[in-house]
Amino acid sequence: MKKLLLIDGNSIMNRGFYALPPDLTNREGLHTNALLGFLNIFFRIYEEEHPTNICVAFDVHAPTFRHEQFKDYKGTRHGMPDELREQMPVIKEILHTMKITTMELPGYEADDLLGTMSRKGEEAGMEVTILSGDRDLLQLATENVMIRIPKTRMGKTTVEDYHAAEVQSTYGVTPEEFIEMKGLMGDTSDNIPGVPGIGPKTAEKLIRSYHTVESVLEHLNELPQNKTRATLEENREMALFSRDLSRILLTAPLPVDVSETAVQRSDILSEAVKNRFLDLEMKSLLKHFTDYAPEKQEFHLELRDGKLSEVKAFTEPGSVVGFYPVFAEDMLLGTAFSIGGNVILTQTDAVASVYELLSWMRSNQVSIAVPSLKPLIRPFHITPEENWFNIEVAAYLLDPLAGEYPYHVLLQKYLEYEVKSEKELVGKQERNVFSFAVPEMRESFAMWAYTAEALYSVLRERLEKTDMMTLYRTMEHPATFVLQDMEQFGIRVDRDALEKYGQRLDSRIDVLIREIYTDAGEEFNINSPKQLGQILFEKLELPSGKKTKSGYSTNVDVLMKLQGAHPIVPRILEYRQLTKLRSTYVEGLMTAVAADGRIHSRFHQTVTATGRISSAEPNLQNIPMRTELGRELRKVFIPEEGFLFVDADYSQIELRVMAAMSGDENLIEAFRQSQDIHATTASKVFHVPLEEVDSSLRRKAKAVNFGIIYGISSFGLGQDLDISRQEAQSYIDQYFETYRGVKNFLDLLVETGKETGEVRTLYKRIRPIPELKSSNFMTRQFGERVAMNSPIQGTAADIIKLAMIAVRQELLSRGMRSRLILQIHDELLIEAAKDEVEEVCRILEDKMVHAAALAVPLYVDMHTGENLYDTK
Hints:
Structural class: alpha/beta
């Protein structure tokens, strides 16, 4: 039997465009993500179906007969992105090269052509498959016509298959009744109105009972006297009209005959098609051609046991070596060295011997590439000046959204090698002295070393090409050493003070529990949202108690709006705050204190997309500051005996960065004159003399100043200031009228993000923004906020990294005992010897203020104290 494959061209191209990264382009700048997505799913279905006939239908950019019936048909849809539009003629040209029939017809949609062709194929005795991401086509399913809908989840594509029976079992209605349902519930994507107030569940129930819209309307007297009956009565014509508008035409005048759709496999996989894929640089598709041999370096993982002396003998001066030491906690188990693609494993615990070999390599200009540098700095006494290359940090700069950089992902991304991951090789096996005897463990060690060597040149070239090599060399590489120092030094904790703080929390929590029970008139589980919701909204009958399937919402936003409604509400909010302090900070910090009485947090430089440093295990950058009781937790952090804390905090650095990057003269002048920027903004935006700006106006201006950085909406600003959306929008409009340079700068960032798919900091750090390509409006809005904020926040993060590097170097060069122990976003904390405090203050002031040369001055607030609380 002949088999006809029909493809919804626009739907599958659209799906590919949004499923694959927007930065897929060839050397000529042509975007290829939609092409690649279309062809990947095409070849998958082709190999599964083995069709004898294929036809691809496309929409024409022109009104259809449905627009004549209803001018607002599909009126809510956005225009096709330019990056997708440029790929449409290319996919048609590729299909013609494959000798696959395409069809399009002015006045009709692709759906109508597919529906009509499916019936022609069925009449000709063919099995028919329709490939589309549009579930509207389910109405075309029959016993002989199958609808296949690709679906991607968690990066994996599956295909849902529907004959008529599957449509009925899944949706509870037949394919014909599927159209009737649309008449009642409408379709927001196509802007088909339907009957107001009737959703999918009601529509399904009615059609299952009465089968057609006409029958539903004829039996209205059988329905209960409710809103559904009333709205159906009022919208009879609209229900019938919407149903007819939703029906796919089965009698369209086809531009081609079904007999013209025959295709040969030899044409689909011809030399001309292969050459076209090569021209477009879509090499991953060449695997479908049996005679194609990939033009890439052949992957060999040769590994053998050896000694450090053999590693030295095989290493040539000026070469590149991949190095991976294997540690179990602090004990060295052995090493893996990759030299020319061959890996030598050495089972040794002699750190000194390895250090001697590494020193020889450095003195002979050997470049040493490692998967991650920070863990190696201390055991091998590495300095920033030495010739080491950090694969993890380089990969992070090139793709800051990845979050993790395991060897199997990097090899596949940059060299197209498919290898087993470390987890696949070793599972949950722990490293120990016997690890070098386990084949899978040996292979994983070797893969890390091999990856480091293999990607050394590739990543360096990419950094040069993207203009980020200077960023890597002068900022990220030396910053690794600062973070290792901070981890090693840690911060001292007063355990007794921490215990007493916990006891204070417990006492207050006990009081709150008793008061909450009294307010409620009974005991209940305060931590249970379900029980709390019943108390608040059923027993106490507080307003805003909207019930969902899971119960009443009792999140912080809901409770904040109810604070004045009943005494129980502020007590619950305080209870939640204190129990979180107890569990997260008191218990969490207590278990994190090491034997030396200090907490050694881990600092990450490859996690955040903006370049900010993050802290974990525990997170010391998130110590509470909003409430007095929360701030008092800072008292448990104390310096070593004979030392003081010196804390230096950049003042309004993101606002200063925005002023400098935007070039706005008014904002720059305000900072140059050391004016109160929030009062100045209030004066200009609200048109009052500076001396008449009160605390209320200043607070509003401050909210606008910082909100602008984060692309705040009128809705968000209105919530922050408890004002109407209209009033908030007027503040934003007045701000941009005052600081026009800022508005132009932010608009340019969004425009750049849309054009290139990324934005950059002042130091050339890249922040990709795939959200700007999303078909979802809210996601695109988020992308625009990211485009506005990332260059500003990222530049501020870059500046403080430069300050950290300069401060560390200065302390070391002077041989001082004082040390940088903590970075909290815009502030640096030094544990300073008491006799060095004045000198430390001068160093911090100098290095932080002069970390960057901007159009506005940088300013630092500085405080000293016997504990962290006293520095604020």
